[in-house]
Amino acid sequence: xxxxxxxxxxxxxxxxxxxxxxxxxxxxxxxxxxxxxxxxxxxxxxxxxxxxxxxxxxxxxxxxxxxxxxxxxxxxxxxxxxxxxxxxxxxxxxxxxxxxxxxxxxxxxxxxxxxxxxxxxxxxxxxxxxxxxxxxxxxxxxxxxxxxxxxxxxxxxxxxx
Amino acid sequence: xxxxxxxxxxxxxxxxxxxxxxxxxxxxxxxxxxxxxxxxxxxxxxxxxxxxxxxxxxxxxxxxxxxxxxxxxxxxxxxxxxxxxxxxxxxxxxxxxxxxxxxxxxxxxxxxxxxxxxxxxxxxxxxxxxxxxxxxxxxxxxxxxxxxxxxxxxxxxxxxx
Amino acid sequence: xxxxxxxxxxxxxxxxxxxxxxxxxxxxxxxxxxxxxxxxxxxxxxxxxxxxxxxxxxxxxxxxxxxxxxxxxxxxxxxxxxxxxxxxxxxxxxxxxxxxxxxxxxxxxxxxxxxxxxxxxxxxxxxxxxxxxxxxxxxxxxxxxxxxxxxxxxxxxxxxx
DNA sequence: GGCGTTCTAGAATATTCGTAG
DNA sequence: GCTACGAATATTCTAGAACGC
Lengths: 161, 161, 161
What we know:
By secondary structure, chain A is α+β, with helices and mostly antiparallel strands. Chain A contains five helices and four strands; from the N terminus they run αββαααββα. In chain A, β1 (25-27) and β2 (33-37) form a beta hairpin. Chains A and B meet through α1 of A and loops of B. Chains A, B, C: One of its GO terms (cellular component) is nucleus.
């Protein structure tokens, strides 16, 4: 019944975090969240070619070209929220701990953008089976899902203790 | 009872994907789907001779001439949907893995059109016997087929994990 | 109350037909409809740079860059229908009578694409004041507009007598 | 009546904008 | 400041409906 549509946002997100060619977004250490480098993300995936170290002949330009139609980082954040992701105000800033290697320029200028930490209980590294619970939370879909669990955000480890 | 009419759409489609002369449409790697190059398709099969590298003396112009009456790519898509094919926007874009060779100009300009990926569980490379299940899904036919399997789209390998 | 949002489709359309830099879409002779050259439109406005006579340094590339996010001509047609435009199957084919000059290549190959004729009683050349009646006909908006006049298409001069 | 072609509409997600908290 | 969300439009994919052969 509820199969994963490869055209929709969750599938794209899963593709990105598992792609060795994408350097702007990946999992955090516990595997329950996402770490997103805003500047790199705009370069790699939103077509902001300027101020970015990669050229048009980059390998990753192929696989992820046209994945999103927007050029606004805010729209990507809106998608995350629509699918139940919430921001964690962790202390990390400007450093990609556990980050994939590469793409760092000689002066390190291409990274070091604002770093965002999001998480979603249904987006775990080892649990692709939970992806079917990621629904676009439109008004209509919320009604369908019933007045069931109205758990909002912020409960699960908003601070890493 | 249910024989395959060579004049109907499924038979034509089977002919196309198995023809060595047709370069705009062929199977994907798993053999369960179709890859269609929109620009090439319009040139080869819909009579849009302009902007296309092939001349009127091309060999493939003979075999497939007049296969379709339409000149609109959208009408071809409507047929695909009517026979139960569904689109998946897989990650491949502009790369034809397992593609047939040829027709690519020196600058590659004649290909590289928008690439569409469709699939249908009854249109498998090694299973011509399943073609009899491809029915034109008109209102009347849907009623005949009963409220039986309401499987819509996306089942076959919708996500490669 | 009902002001025209310059970011919405009707305003963009009005901009296009009145721009001297856009050659793929303009008004028909009576000023009640639109004539759209599909091939030119895809080149000028949908980013199909290939097979098009204009280069990236073209003047019109500036004004209309990023007006639409889609690359599919079908999506543009969907917008036309959503705003109440209907297609007229007039007799003209491949000729732009009353067309703006320019952009025609030496061999005339850059034009001569499929020509579409649409019209809408609220999109008249001399009546920008009617634009406020162009509403996105979503389900919700239709309900708001009430079960009032259910006039569909084709009434207004479907054939030019 | 079945099938192909065409035009329009439904339905769901994607994108944008504004704003409450 | 700034996060999350409502609401409206935009885009995509599929289906309905009408018509001709």
